[in-house]
Amino acid sequence: MDRNRFKTVAFKVGDGNKRNFIELALEIEKKIGLIEYLCTDKNPSYSYYKLANKHISSKSETCLVESFNSSMRDMLARLNRRTKRFSKCIEMLRLTLIMFFNKQISYVVYL
User: Are 76 and 96 in contact (CB under 8 A)?
Assistant: First the structure.
């Protein structure tokens, strides 16, 4: 998430392992290049690939992302609980998030 523009740059559906982080990092690098600051929690997977000039590893710096995740769980029923609304297919979750992010970015205002 870009703090300055409050915009999601990229996302990856997965469990936060090294492989998922490297795939996400390569996607971010392809879109915006090397970034100045990277703020993450203390997951050891984030140290395998240098994505930023300065890497801050602290839970206090990830409040924007956690707040956005909470809002997304409120808006998307499939992220609430593992009940009948929840699809176990990872691909469906990924496609739902793509639709959600595109709706957030590409809305049109008619006057």
Answer: yes
Whether residue 63 lies inside any domain: the answer is yes
CB-based burial label for 55 (10 Å; 0-12, 13-18, 19+): middle
What is the rounded CA–CA span in Å between residue 107 and residue 56?
33
For residues 85-111, give the mean pLDDT: 66
Q: Per the structure, how many domains does the chain have?
A: 1
For residues 3-8, average pLDDT: 76
d(CA 55, CA 39): 6
Please, which residues bridge with residue 7 across strands? 2
Residue 102 lies in a domain: no
pLDDT digits (tens, 9 = 90+) for 20-40: 888 888 988 888 887 888 888
Domain that holds residue 46: 18-91
